[in-house]
Each structure stands twice: as structure tokens, then as C-alpha cells.
Amino acid sequence: MDKIHPDLTVTNIKNFIPLTLDNDQSTYTSWVELFRIHCRAFQCSDHLETDKPPVSAAGDKPATSTADKELWDRTDVIVLQWIYGTICKHLYTTIIKLDSTAILYGRLSNTFLVTTRMQGLSTFKINSQTLS
Q1: What torsion, rounded to 10 degrees, do the Cα atoms 83, 37, 103, 24 define?
Q2: 94-123: pLDDT as tens digits
Q3: How far, in Å, CA of 88 to CA of 58, rounded?
Q4: Contact present, 52 and 40 (Cβ < 8 Å)
Q5: Computed from CA positions of residues 38, 44, 49, 51, in that sequence, does the dihedral angle turn out positive or negative?
Q6: Which pLDDT tens digit goes with each residue over 38-96?
Q7: What φ, ψ does residue 87 adopt, rounded to 5°?
Q8: Does position 128 have pLDDT exceeding 70, yes or no?
Q9: CA distance 119 to 70
Q10: How far apart are CA 46 and CA 63, in angstroms?
Q11: 21, 52, 96, 126: which could join 31 in a potential S-S bond, CB 3.0 to 4.6 Å?
């Protein structure tokens, strides 16, 4: 009998990640931590790092079996669903594209990193004007 991949057992992502990531910067760190923990627990954190299937057991070439590729693709789509199921509508419409999980996750991270940098610059400008 084939072993069922753990991610296939998740029926409601909100049971594991009870918060919704929104445009508020303060939720991002908590959301990322919960999401990474969840992906590690369900053996799919590699989908956040790369859009390429893992290498073969020998470690010298990509996994080539059709079953391995199908499982990778299915898991990738499941993790995408987890992301979409835990973000607000505005972020959903901002980042949605037909991409791999790693690319989408990177786009989401960049959205918050750019926002943080812009907020930091604004704060710096305000503080500089206050000091002048």
C-alpha cells in the first residue's frame, strides 16, 4: 500500500494557521512563522524554497519517476491553496498568478519587504525633520 503524503490530510488550513495575513505589517512575521512551521510539519517546506522537484535518492539527478513528479506538482498546488486560504482578498488579488509555490511565496515576501523598507524610509524622513 502506498504511503499518503502528510499534506494530503489537511482539510482546513485555518485549523493550523488561525490568522489571516493582511496588509498590516504586524501580522506578517507571525504568519510566516506559523506557515513555515506548518509546512515543516507536513513535509513540504521545500516548496517554499524552490520550484524544482527534489533530487533522486542518489542525490545526483532530479527525481524522474512520473509518480514523484505528480506528487511534487500536487503538493505544490496544495501549498498554494494554503497560502491563498490564509491571506486577505487584497493580497490575493495583488499576488495571484499561475506560478509555483516558491515563486508566489517569494512575491508575497517581497511585497512585505518593500513595504517595510518604504515605511522605514518614511520614518527616517519624519525623524530627520523632527531633529532639524
Answers
A1: 60
A2: 777 767 788 888 888 887 776 555 454 444
A3: 41
A4: no
A5: negative
A6: 999 998 888 888 777 765 555 555 656 777 788 888 888 899 999 889 998 888 887 77
A7: -120, 155
A8: no
A9: 42
A10: 14
A11: 21
